[in-house]
Amino acid sequence: ASEPYIIPAVDGTYEVVAKDEKGNQAKTTITIKLPVAEPEDEEAPVIKVGDDVLGATANYEESVTLTITDNKGVASVTINGTPASEPYIIPAVDGTYEVVAKDEKGNQAKTTITIKLPVVIEPEPGDITIIESSGVQTTVFRTIKTDDFSGIEVLAKEKMSIEVYDESGKRVKVGTAKMEDGATRVAMPVGKYKVNMGMFKSLDLEIK
């Protein structure tokens, strides 16, 4: 070999022998082991609620806690542009929340979460009222007795059937009317009844 004496960047073992005019020599063995290049990271972080991986949008009726992971580690998370740290909590406040998670390579995951809390209808003073709020259905029931009407009024988030029975268990045929606020009025004479109404089974009530 002649100058320049270069050992190439190729994995292998290289024996180098150098001699002078008198035959004196030096010998060495050089091993080249190149580092293994890591594959390019193109995997974005993952945003989840429980076991559910979130897509571009998600809707909830309550506060949610996010789990955010990445194969190389999460570098940053923002919620509506504000830096966030664990635990990543979306509050139980009506609104839209944009969540952006990034890793060190700039790969990002983004989702928009909309929180819409169930409507809770406040009863009027003096009403006999049952409120059921499960996050799926909100129902307000009350008895009404005025000069020109007696019966019940039901305001429900979801459609429900209403069945009325007298004290003997005989089904009573009743008239219904839809009000401007979406409530259903069921006309019932003064008396005692059992009412099957959606999730409420055999509800005892009295119109007096």
Summarize the entry for a quick read:
This protein has strands at residues 12-19, 25-32, 46-49, 52-53, 57-60, 64-69, 74-79, 82-83, 88-90, 95-103, 108-115, 129-133, 138-145, 150-156, 162-165, 175-178, 184-187, 191-197, 200-207. It has 208 residues and is mostly beta strands.
Map the helices and strands:
Layout: E1 12-19, E2 25-32, E3 46-49, E4 52-53, E5 57-60, E6 64-69, E7 74-79, E8 82-83, E9 88-90, E10 95-103, E11 108-115, E12 129-133, E13 138-145, E14 150-156, E15 162-165, E16 175-178, E17 184-187, E18 191-197, E19 200-207
Parallel strand pairs: 5-11
Antiparallel strand pairs: 1-2, 3-4, 3-6, 6-9, 7-8, 7-10, 10-11, 12-13, 13-14, 14-17, 15-18, 16-17, 18-19
What report would you give on this structure?
It contains no helices and 19 strands. Strands 5-11-10-7-8 form a five-stranded mixed β-sheet, with no helix packed on it. The chain has a five-stranded antiparallel β-sheet with strand order 12-13-14-17-16, with no helix packed on it. Strands 4-3-6-9 form a four-stranded antiparallel β-sheet, with no helix packed on it. A hairpin with a 4-residue loop joins strand 13 and strand 14. About 8% of the residues have low confidence. By secondary structure, the protein is mainly beta.
